[in-house]
Amino acid sequence: MHDDLRPLCARFLTAAELLGRRWTGIILRILMDGPCRFGELTERIGTISERVLSERLKELEAEGIIERHVDPGPPIRSEYRLTEKGQAFWKVIDELGRWAERWVDVKPAAPKAAGVKSTRAAPRKRKSA
User: Fold this and answer.
1) Half-sphere CA count of 75, side-chain side, radius 13 A
2) Radius of gyration of the CA atoms of the chain, in A
3) pTM of this prediction?
4) Crossing angle (nearest 10°) for helices 6-20 and 24-31
5) What is the C-alpha to C-alpha distance for residues 26 and 46, in angstroms, rounded to an integer?
6) Is 122's pLDDT higher than 50?
7) Are strands 77-82 and 36-37 parallel, antiparallel or unpaired?
């Protein structure tokens, strides 16, 4: 590798790792439409846990890509929005979407087999007093 490419490669790898983290791209894509509250992000993404969403938001905030704005209320509300640095991702996210539309095949979800039980634990019954 050429020595003059090392700083570029380190920056590229850092950016790719950040954008490549699970859920980061979709979070950025949603915030490109405008500010969102935590619950709205959870609802729009659908399958993300609150713990993971919180982690990703903190990571993006620490990188200066998003900011958390708190409205003291009442009630207290906080929303997340892109910073200038985050808005600069627009072209990357847009091009990634175009690339995906052209080249990525999405396989349909496999239907659940009849009679197959869920692997989730059954809810516990409450003891009556």
Assistant:
1) 3
2) 20
3) 0.73
4) 80
5) 11
6) no
7) antiparallel
The predicted-structure confidence for 80-103, as pLDDT tens digits, reads as follows 999 999 999 899 888 988 999 999
Which residue has tokens 């847009």?
Answer: 94
What are phi and psi for residue 111, nearest 5 degrees?
-70, 150
For residues 31 and 87, give the distance between their C-alpha atoms in angstroms, rounded to a whole number.
9
Dump the DSSP string for the chain: --GGGHHHHHHHHHHHHHHHSTTHHHHHHHHTT--EEHHHHHHHH-S--HHHHHHHHHHHHHTTSEEEEEE--SSPEEEEEE-HHHHTTHHHHHHHHHHHHHH---PPPPPPPTTPPPSSPPPPPPPP-
Provide the token pair at 103.
């080249």
Question: Average pLDDT in the 63-92 region?
Answer: 92
**How far apart, in whole angstroms, are the C-alpha atoms of residue 7 and residue 43?**
39
Q: Quick one: pLDDT band at residue 10, thresholds 50, 70, 90?
A: confident
